[in-house]
User: Which sequence fits this backbone?
């Protein structure tokens, strides 16, 4: 690793003390004068025409200020703006149980709730469907008129000649997998507070990952110019993709504020978080892999049916990300993909940590394990043989500037003793290996635009010090800690010398938002460029003061001096004072635009793909209780290539969080849906996520890595590490009891059933 | 007046709707998690040694978190940092009744108040003095050890040869005047909310005019680096100079927050506002004016004893401002000044609207009236003869770049019919004229510094629009309306296209604060320069797009085009989008430094003096009730030279506010002090200020004016118009009943007494 002063040194998160002391202000903590409360009336039916909504009795209730329905905001929207399918409140019909049909504003929450009960909705119940495969065939269920066979979108890709390669392969394995319907389970429910000033200016405080896209959507749905709207993000209690789309709460708060003239706050109950959902797409996947005798992958054929739930959301993006997943982290010379995203009458699925990657990774890494066994190879050797390296271009024309994936595999295997244990443990004990990768930012905005994806402003004065303004939004991932570290490294000062202002469409410069693991890499480059802009201006003044050429100056620990010869030293803040006295106030902006296909000097990047990629390998050890079927994950040995970590402590947190979240999805998380489409466990009491007692020993290593395209070499670390979790557990269970599970979650019931069947065979 | 698109068009204040609707968030409206309340224990004695403070019983009260005394913050401070005399809480002794001796933090205000009662302070009472003339002679009263004869400071100036000029003058008049002890009576009491983050970073929200000087003082008193402190100013309910110094509330809130780890709010009761005071200096003035037969002023000799109350504050500045007042708005070839600021055992006096001007103006304009009568001239002609014009340099070497004072006199006289009425009205009815001027910003900071006094940042993006960041603080004077108008005029867009962020030492760039009528002129120039910086960058891109030379482009109503030939037009925001796509984010900074003595190309400006000056003339008509002595001000005809008004509606408001405030001081405002130094009317119930029924008809005119040194020609209008108010009323009363009053306020009692004495003569 390079020699940095700030980068690479672990720092506690800047938001940690406020959170620990209960001082952090989340959206629901905000109060405004005359503020009232909004609540949403939700459909009990999974699929029904709204015949009539009567709300006179609600309006008669003292303290009720307004009632709105879908007809008050009939403009459809969607995070992918080319395919808008959603409404602030249902228009015409409801497509899932829990969908909002009306909203009220009242002086307190109790009155609002009583008002909801006084709203009478007349429904004509329609037949509904909850399984995507069934939905494709049910002619009697038409969820969206435009979507024939309930298919929202079908995508097909072929690179190379898959049929020929399969025919020529020494060994071909085909398997079908199913993944489950899981929610992000972030701690802070969605909350939005909207306030119209008398001049018509709208401010929305919201727990969102995407202030910019919320800004755009408010403009669209409320028909207001964007420069008459401000979106500001208070402290956020987790998102994981679930706050990566506009929520009904945000639009209803704004619409009710417009209607009443009062600030309106809408905070969801946990059951409403499940209704809003946008969690992971359940996938029905068939994958075929052909290899040569020496384990070289020759072809992959992948068919994926994605359960989209009722609306569009990130669906198309997720579909194509699942397609992309077969091209990496292994060299695949021939690949075919067919994907269908299908509507069902359930809360909509969307973006969730590791979007599009987790499901195909489960399939592919499970199969590579079985193929290795079939070929008599170590699964490790098979992976190492096929692993991509820096400078690789996939058959689908995605350029990988930098990869230390082999190091990840080697490190995880060596540190865990995988070679010594795999296949050699007693019955019930097993060890599994899996690899994975993820994007580190995307090449395109979701709408046509050539503007920079991130920008940053740094302003320095002798009083307030160094202020970094960035539109990037800290959703708990730690960007408000990492971005100041990048600025501090470039400026040559301490990280706590930097004051950050972030996540506000008015106070801070443009940024696309916190998704696709884009912030450290993209916003980081904008911040670094802004800091370079400060240095350029400052060093010209410092050079005169020091009698040294400006281009020879550096700053370390707040001291500016020549990097080539010992000599005079000028304090950073003294140079700032000199600059301001001589030239006026000091500021600089920076920006980041990802390389685009066909850009001069940049190797072609495929649509939707990323400027660079992070990699991870994991070895997981489990203990399967043969009596109860319960799986205890004992230890996870992880090795990740996140480039140069800016804040290793933050990377460690991301890795541990990814492992725990993936483990929940592997072993017990699943939203249960009743035969009529109601969610049966839409609470954190009934929806089981891992708790402290479930968490295994985690040995995580950041492999030596430096991506030269990245700010101080840093790539993503928040979504890559979840990719191998599920297959590593599945492979470990297979090693423990000799059973290959093809469906998630791998519950004790399924394990006992499999053991019983195995015994009977 | 020039042809402007935005400047010169009246706009309602941007903060008006929130204030009217009760939505404005003042400091006391803010709430933070775990916030507690601070209260201050105050001395009942006007002068006493603090022998001992016992607060164990206070700490024993459940809910009390901390008690502090002066010993916890022994660092003296002052707005004039060379002469610090004040403490957060009294150290060693108290110097006025109402001075803070201890402060408590408790979970609610009631508990805090109960705790105050449990604090026992043992005093050794000292003799006290309340009159400045007496204080100079009382050897037994030593208020500050360093101040011999209780004289804080004596200033002497002589320009020309006064004795010679007086000897040669055709007529010499000498008179003595006394002005009263008045408070600003702003609506919002002082309030401060301080919060320490776990990392030691301090944020203070405060109702202050001077976030920068508060920032410095917090740094000094709490011994923290400035870049670990943020001062942010919420909505302010008036200041008028009274929030132009650091208040004990601000320091106690910060100290208690540091001590308790909780956010602490301290909001004053009205009686505490009077204790904090910093209102107008009562002055004991002797003035001698020598004139030639034709009314030309030959010399002025001015002796002023200023009652400073207990501490230093703005005292030295006020003293020298009273000195400056005799040099303008009339040509005075010889002038002498002796000023003594004297400590007394009363709440400290300080800065109040028209600081240093109002008292000498009362003396001088009263005397000019009498001199005119003595010479058989119209007081109008005498003033006109001596009035200064643009380009005048005073004998004291103050350069006046621009003056339309003659136009002010002419306009007020013509519009009021002064010539026709003066001396010709029936007994009890009178008309009076007076002139005045005031500074429009100052040349120097209060501490040695060469940095710009104001700076501004403008950032433009395609989403949020145009954001103006300025450290200037809107204290109710309307700068948040006027500064966007300046930006809009320069950019060629609408004023409501500009979003302003202001008054925050972290979010906004450096500005000295709202005092000395410096904001429109100084911060206005910084804003205009920032807007010019945007235009320069934007027009380069627009020029390519339009095929026109960049230096020929202008923007009006959001359209960019060549100012010389009809042709293509580019929308401002379209140009912004082009710019950002091509070059990245768009921002520019501007700054303003006042001209300094000896600066190249700038005529010399005297220390503490201003880059330019505003002027005002007023004709006031009164009806004196001969039975009751009550004066009814019937009409004020005002004409002001504020240069080009940016927002005429705001100027009108400033003029009307000045007249009403001055009228209160002329006729009834006066803080009454008991023989032992307690304030007898320290409430808005007992301290009488004008109400709606007292307000006269006001006819105000902004004379045609354009100061070429100013941003769009604009000078001050918030402090000049109060200057003539009191003497115009006094002159009108003299015209009505033939009595010259030399002491303020001119109460019914004084009038009845004078009428009685007149009758008896």
Assistant:
């Amino acid at each position: 690793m390079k020699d940095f002063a700030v980068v690479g040194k672990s720092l506690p998160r800047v938001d940690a003390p406020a959170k620990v002391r209960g001082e952090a202000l989340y959206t629901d903590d905000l109060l405004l004068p005359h503020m009232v409360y909004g609540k949403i009336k939700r459909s009990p039916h999974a699929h029904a025409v709204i015949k009539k909504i009567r709300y006179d009795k609600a309006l008669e209730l003292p303290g009720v200020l307004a009632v709105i329905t879908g007809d008050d905001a009939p403009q459809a929207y969607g995070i992918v703006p080319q395919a808008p399918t959603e409404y602030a409140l249902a228009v015409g019909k409801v497509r899932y149980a829990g969908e909002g049909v009306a909203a009220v504003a009242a002086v307190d929450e109790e009155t609002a709730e009583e008002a909801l009960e006084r709203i009478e909705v007349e429904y004509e119940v329609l037949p509904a469907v909850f399984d995507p495969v069934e939905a494709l065939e049910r002619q009697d269920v038409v969820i969206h008129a435009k979507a024939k066979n309930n298919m929202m979108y079908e995508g097909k890709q072929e690179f190379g000649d898959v049929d020929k390669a399969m025919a020529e392969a020494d060994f071909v394995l085909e398997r079908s997998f199913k993944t489950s319907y899981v929610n992000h389970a972030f701690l802070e429910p969605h909350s939005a507070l909207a306030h119209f000033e008398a001049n018509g200016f709208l401010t929305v405080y919201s727990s969102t990952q995407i202030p910019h896209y919320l800004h755009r959507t408010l403009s669209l749905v409320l028909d207001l110019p964007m420069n008459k709207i401000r979106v500001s993000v208070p402290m956020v209690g987790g998102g994981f993709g679930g706050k990566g789309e506009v929520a009904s709460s945000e639009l209803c708060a704004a619409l009710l504020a417009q209607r009443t003239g009062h600030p309106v706050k809408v905070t969801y109950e946990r059951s409403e978080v499940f209704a809003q959902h946008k969690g992971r797409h359940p996938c029905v996947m068939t994958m075929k892999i052909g290899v040569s005798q020496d384990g070289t992958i020759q072809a992959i054929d992948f068919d994926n049916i994605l359960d989209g739930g009722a609306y569009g959301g990130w669906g198309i993006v997720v579909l194509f990300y699942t397609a992309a997943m077969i091209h990496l982290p292994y060299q695949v010379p021939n690949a075919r993909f067919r994907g269908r995203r299908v509507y069902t009458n359930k809360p909509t699925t969307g973006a969730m940590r590791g979007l599009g990657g987790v499901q195909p990774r489960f399939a592919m890494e499970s199969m590579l394990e079985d193929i290795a066994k079939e070929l008599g190879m170590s699964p490790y050797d098979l992976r190492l043989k096929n692993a991509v390296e820096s400078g690789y271009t996939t058959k689908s024309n995605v350029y990988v500037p930098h990869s230390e994936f082999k190091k990840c595999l080697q490190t995880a295997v060596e540190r865990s003793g995988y070679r010594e244990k795999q296949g050699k443990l007693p019955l019930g004990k097993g060890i599994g290996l899996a690899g994975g990768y993820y994007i580190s930012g995307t090449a395109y905005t979701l709408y046509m635009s050539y503007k920079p994806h991130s920008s940053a402003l740094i302003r320095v004065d002798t009083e307030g010090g160094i202020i970094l303004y960035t539109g990037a939004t800290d959703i708990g991932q730690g960007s408000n800690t990492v971005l100041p570290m990048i600025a501090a490294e470039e400026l040559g000062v301490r990280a706590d010398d930097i004051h950050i202002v972030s996540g506000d469409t008015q106070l801070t410069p443009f940024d696309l938002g916190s998704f696709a693991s884009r912030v450290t890499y993209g916003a980081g480059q904008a911040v670094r460029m802004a800091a370079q802009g400060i240095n350029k201006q400052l060093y010209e003044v410092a050079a005169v003061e020091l009698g040294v050429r400006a281009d020879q100056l550096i700053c370390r620990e707040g001291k500016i001096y020549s990097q080539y010869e010992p000599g005079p030293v000028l304090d950073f803040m003294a140079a700032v004072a000199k600059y301001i006295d001589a030239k006026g106030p000091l500021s600089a902006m920076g920006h980041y635009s990802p390389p685009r296909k066909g850009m001069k000097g940049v190797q072609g990047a495929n649509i939707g793909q990323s400027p660079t990629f992070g990699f991870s390998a994991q070895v997981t050890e489990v203990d399967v209780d043969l009596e109860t079927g319960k799986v205890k994950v004992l230890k996870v040995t992880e090795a990740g290539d996140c480039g140069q970590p800016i804040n290793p402590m933050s990377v460690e947190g991301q890795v541990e969080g990814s492992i725990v979240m993936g483990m929940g999805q592997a072993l017990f998380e699943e939203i249960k849906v009743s035969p009529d489409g109601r969610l049966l466990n839409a609470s954190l009491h009934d929806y089981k996520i891992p708790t402290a007692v479930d968490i295994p020993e985690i040995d995580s290593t950041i492999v030596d890595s430096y991506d030269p395209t990245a700010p101080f070499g840093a790539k993503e670390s928040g979504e890559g590490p979840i990719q191998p979790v599920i297959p590593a557990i599945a492979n470990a269970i297979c090693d423990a009891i000799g059973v290959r599970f093809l469906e998630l979650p791998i519950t004790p019931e399924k394990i006992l059933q499999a053991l019983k069947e195995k015994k009977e065979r």
Notes: Residues 519-546 of chain B form the longest helix (28 residues). DSSP finds 19 helices and 28 strands in chain B.
